Amino acid sequence: MGHDHHHKFDPADAARLDDPRRRDVLPPAPLVAALPLHPGDRVADLGTGTGYWLRALLDAAPAGTRFWAVDTETAMLDHLADRLRDHPRRADVMTVRSTEHAVPLPDASVDVAVMGMVYHELADRRGYLAEVRRLLVPGGRLAIIDWAVLPPDAERTMGPPNDERVPFETAKAELAAAGFDDVVRVEGYQETWCVVAATTKDPIGDCDAIEFLVEQLPGGSYVARSIGACVTTEADTLDELRAAVREAVCCHFDEGCKPAAVRLRFFTVVREEMVPL
Ligand SMILES: C[S@@+](CC[C@H](N)C(=O)[O-])C[C@H]1O[C@@H](n2cnc3c(N)ncnc32)[C@H](O)[C@@H]1O
């Protein structure tokens, strides 16, 4: 079998995630110490598996911290539920089944996201980081821990082969490109790298965006009408529409009162009726 670079962990091997040797190679303590949690924090463990990192964080979390255990595999979420069955704080954990690219949680609903040994498995790391930014509140934190690329002659205790691993420098550049401008490496790991990343710049807030309703006309072209301001613009393609909307909004508003972004809402008519007068 050739290596596909997004080789997924086989849920049938779930027991390996609780191998006691993991405590030596992947001690939870440095990560837990680097991610202080506050009452009310909402923590999402993305690619939770059997909840190795989630359970360590749960044990250290103050009362009132809530957890989402997210995984693409229901088998993994079942294993996690098993392991939490007798946990006194099992009610603080909700399991969430996700897809490869999307987590079904609302925008800005997560204070702390964690990704343990899953970054190297992602099919689209940049796309996934954008999804994590969508989930995080402004100033939210993301911790990633993953396997380091080892020198060719180094002995590998566990984890995937070298060619499936993501070098730390690559991850760091990808985090910067995704808008994480505060990236701190966590010390205390040898065969792995660990970072805590945060954004200091606010993502565009809802109130800073002007909304347009976009309708596709029978001929295939598009019309966009602003809500709350009288701006209407048309274009043949979506790319042209984006450009036209940008230009129309820039003309309409004086510098200084201009919104930070445009939200396009695409709509289809689901029902139509006549109200006689
Ligand atoms: C190697 S396991 C690590 C599990 C756990 N974080 C740990 O370190 O023990 C990787 C996990 O990520 C999950 N996974 C892979 N791609 C994913 C994605 N795009 N979104 C969510 N989970 C994913 C897999 O199903 C698997 O449970």
Structure explained in plain terms:
By secondary structure, the chain is α/β, with parallel strands linked by helices. 24% of the residues lie in helices and 25% in strands. The chain is built from seven helices and eleven strands. Strand 8 and strand 9 form a beta hairpin. The radius of gyration is 23 Å and the shape is elongated. The N and C termini lie far apart (71 Å). The chain binds S-adenosylmethionine. The site of S-adenosylmethionine (SAM) has 21 residues, from helix 3 and strand 2.
The percent range for strand residues is: 15-25%
CATH superfamily of the largest domain: Vaccinia Virus protein VP39
- Overall mean pLDDT stands at 91
Read across the widest sheet, the strand sequence of neighbours is 3-2-1-4-5-7-6
Total strands = 11
Task: Write a compact overview of the structure shown.
The chain is α/β, with parallel strands linked by helices.
What key attributes describe this structure?
277 residues; alpha/beta; Rossmann fold; 2 domains; seven-stranded mixed beta sheet; four-stranded mixed beta sheet; 7 helices; 11 strands; binds S-adenosylmethionine
